[in-house]
Amino acid sequence: MLLSTTEIRVRYAETDMMGVVYHANYFTWFEAARIQLLDDLGLPYRELDKRGYLLPVLECEAKFILPARFDDRLSVQVRIEELPIARIEARYEVKREEDTLATGRTTHAFMSPEGRIIRPPEEFAAKALEAFGKTEG
């Protein structure tokens, strides 16, 4: 399993008139967690992009359990439970201390700048395989 956690401090601009975080911001936080996961893996998204690999979102969903509010300190955990080959499914959990505020899922595929689905770079596959080996053994 690939796993990473990103800390988020809720900004005032992320809240609505009810003082609750606007739902679309969770997807921005999911993205921040994915970028951190790639950094932790040693393959920053910026580097993948320079090499011509894109990772568009194919599907996304979120379940909102408790509201987040201005100045909350949150942790966003992302995990990839299955070894990614052509598609990557990421699962998320947004927590405030011990309380789970939201969960989510996104599906991605490696694509070329022309929009063709392509295999991930060999370096990504090797690092993912190594990380899965470490967590499963």
Textual characterization of the structure:
The chain is of the alpha+beta class and 137 residues long. It has a single domain (2-136), classed as Hotdog Thioesterase (Thiol Ester Dehydrase, Chain A, Roll). The chain is built from three helices and five strands. The protein has helices spanning 24-41, 45-50, 122-136; strands at residues 2-9, 57-64, 73-80, 87-96, 99-109. The protein has a five-stranded antiparallel sheet with strand order 1-3-4-5-2. The longest helix has 18 residues, at 24-41. The N and C termini lie close together (11 Å).
Mean pLDDT: 94
Coarse shape: elongated
Find the CATH superfamily: Hotdog Thioesterase
Structural class: alpha+beta
CATH architecture: Roll
Please indicate the count of domains: 1
Spatially, the strands of the biggest sheet line up as: 1-3-4-5-2
Q: Encode the helix/strand succession as letters.
A: EHHEEEEH
**CATH class identity:** Alpha Beta
Termini distance?
Answer: 11 Å
Model regions low in confidence, pLDDT < 50 over at least 5 residues:
none
Largest sheet: 5 strands, antiparallel
Q: Which fold name fills CATH's third level, the topology?
A: Thiol Ester Dehydrase, Chain A
Q: What's the alpha carbon Rg, rounded to whole Å?
A: 16 Å
Number of helices: 3
Write down how many β-strands occur, each being a DSSP E stretch of 2 or more residues: 5
**What is the percent of helical residues?**
25-40%
Strand content: 25-35%
